[in-house]
Amino acid sequence: INIIRAKYIASAVKKAQYPEERLKEIAFIGRSNVGKSSLINSLTRVHNLARVSGQPGKTQTINFYELTARFNETGKDKLFHLVDLPGYGYAKTAQTNRKQWAKFIEEYFLHSEHLQFVCQLIDIRHEPMKSDKEMFDWLIKNNIPVLIIATKADKISRGAVNKQIAQIRKSLGVKEIDILPYSSPKKQGRAELLNVIYEMLVD
Ligand code: GTP
Ligand code: MG
């Protein structure tokens, strides 16, 4: 598939604000600054579709994007939603904000009728933090399919990539899970992620 169109649809902090269109959804979650919005831009090839910032905590609402995928063999188009979620684990966010964060994200994960899987992003340079592990365990416990994406792969040497991937697997306490190295500026991992999306859309 190719992504031939991408547009912003809506922002939400509660279920009533989710888009009405019944399209399959993929959500992106991860610590603040891990590169969620950058990944969405690189996947869609639309610069500035999702707002990117060097300052953590940029994305504060659940943001829906409508993407059009074109199947290479048939030329047919299929629409789906990408969902950009606010980052977790940002120390400077006030305690009350954090509670609210948990509440509306939890509502999304547990009550979205169209969510197919979650991409959890983890910075490839560091060992997963406590908040990453807690998020991952929570998704597994709630039977939400997860794809781990190791971001900013361009920031370490090629040789270090596999070592870091193994470290992430070990820290999360899982042996068999696929972890996809990704670099937004280099578009590394993009073809693989498109394959996963293809499998979701043909189902
Ligand atoms: P919040 O919205 O605050 O939760 O952050 P986010 O996860 O959406 O991160 P964002 O995409 O805004 O990126 C944060 C910073 O990391 C920006 O300065 C990006 O340019 C940088 N960045 C993101 N992805 C990559 C990557 O793959 N490689 C490199 N080198 N830098 C990246
Ligand atoms: Mg963001």
Tell me the structural class: alpha/beta
User: How do the strands of the widest beta sheet line up side by side?
Assistant: 1-3-4-2-5-6-7
Give the overall silhouette.
Answer: globular
Number of DSSP-assigned strands: 7
Number of helices: 5
- Poorly predicted runs are none
Helix/strand order: EEHEEHEHEHEH
Q: pLDDT average, as an integer? A: 91
Q: Report the helical percentage.
A: 25-40%
Amount of beta strand: 25-35%
Biggest sheet character? 7 strands, mixed
Distinct small molecules:
guanosine-5'-triphosphate, magnesium ion
What gap, in angstroms, lies between the N and C termini? 14 Å
**Rg calc:** 16 Å
Family: Belongs to the TRAFAC class TrmE-Era-EngA-EngB-Septin-like GTPase superfamily. EngB GTPase family.
Cofactor: Mg(2+)
InterPro entries: G_ENGB_dom (IPR030393), GTP-bd (IPR006073), GTP-bd_ribosome_bio_YsxC (IPR019987), P-loop_NTPase (IPR027417), Small_GTP-bd (IPR005225)
Keywords: Cell cycle, Cell division, GTP-binding, Magnesium, Metal-binding, Nucleotide-binding, Septation
